[in-house]
TrEMBL record:
Species of the source: Vibrio algivorus
Entry's Gene Ontology BP terms: positive regulation of DNA-templated transcription
Entry's transmembrane regions: none
Highest taxon in the source lineage: Bacteria
SUPFAM superfamilies per record: Homeodomain-like
Family to which the UniProt record says this protein belongs: Belongs to the transcriptional regulatory Fis family.
Gene from which the chain derives: fis
Entries under Pfam families matching the protein: HTH_8 (PF02954)
Domain DNA binding HTH: 55-95
Entry protein name: DNA-binding protein Fis
Subunit structure: Homodimer.
Stored Gene3D superfamilies: Homeodomain-like
Amino acid sequence: MFEQNLTSEPFTVTTVTSQDQITQKPLRDSVKASLKNYLAQLNGQDVNDLYELVLAEVEQPMLDMVMQYTRGNQTRAANMMGINRGTLRKKLKKYGMN
């Protein structure tokens, strides 16, 4: 789960350890760690669509949560995301969310 933290990093990831300790770290750290793990698993293989892969992993859940937050109001969601409503509609269609 992530939440906006207005005093420091824009987004943080909150995790609970097995000892019930709560930790927070910037979302970018989680993305970096995930990418490092993914690249290590490639074991020297080439990959051609890494940008699209990462973008899809972040974009789809973001669209889902923003659409839930705006109760399906595409105009409000597009404004919230800082994109054109037509662009939002294309992205929703891309992920089968229309």
